[in-house]
Amino acid sequence: MQSWWPTSISIQELKSMYQQATQLVRVQDIYPYILQPYTKIILRQLSEKGIPLAIASASNKVLIDSMCTSCGIDSYFSFKQSGEDLQRSKPYPDIYLEVAKQLQVNPKNCIVVEDSTYGIRAAKDAGMYVIAKEDKRFHYDQSPADICGSDLFEIYTIIKNKLNEEK
Asked: Which of 116, 144, 105, 112 is nearest to 131 (CA)?
């Protein structure tokens, strides 16, 4: 951690700062304003087709639940896994393997939509098919992903094609 934040800040102080930032995000309820276009439509369509959906996020459980509730998408997810509840979070595959286990799905039959370098690596190491969601704001290395999509509509098309391949 010292290489990322070379100060004399303690782990406890860092945790406190993180909790304060988390509380600020929850209080401001910014999630509905940053929800990607087509999100609800795509989640509804996948859910109606009987495809189990889950969230595997390095964020804490409170933030995950807050985001899902405030955006009105909570009911679409069968399972939500926070990295903070595991011994190891991303870039290790544990979070994705746990989601597959909870959904009772073979990891090789899972499709993951990810944006971050660590998330893509974790999903690939879990043996899953990975669609990278392009995000030009950050300089993520998305090259390990199986395919890239520029927006959620394109990603939905990729998912439909992948599911049709497997029939």
From this structure: 112
Largest interatomic CA distance in the chain: 56
Per-residue pLDDT reduced to its tens digit, 103-134: 999 999 999 999 999 999 999 999 999 999 99
Which value, to the nearest 10 degrees, does the dihedral of the CA atoms of residues 45, 103, 160, 66 take?
A: 50
* pTM for the model: 0.82
At the top level of CATH, the class of 11-165 is alpha beta
Report the distance separating Cα 89 and Cα 94, nearest Å: 7
Express each pLDDT in 21-52 by its tens digit. Answer: 666 555 456 676 678 889 999 999 999 999 99
> What are 147's two structure tokens?
């395919």
Host H or E run for residue 75? none
The residue ranges of every structural domain in the chain are 11-165
Burial class (CB in 10 A: 0-12, 13-18, 19+), 155: buried
Phi-psi region of 83 (alpha: psi -120 to 50; beta: other; left: phi over 0): alpha
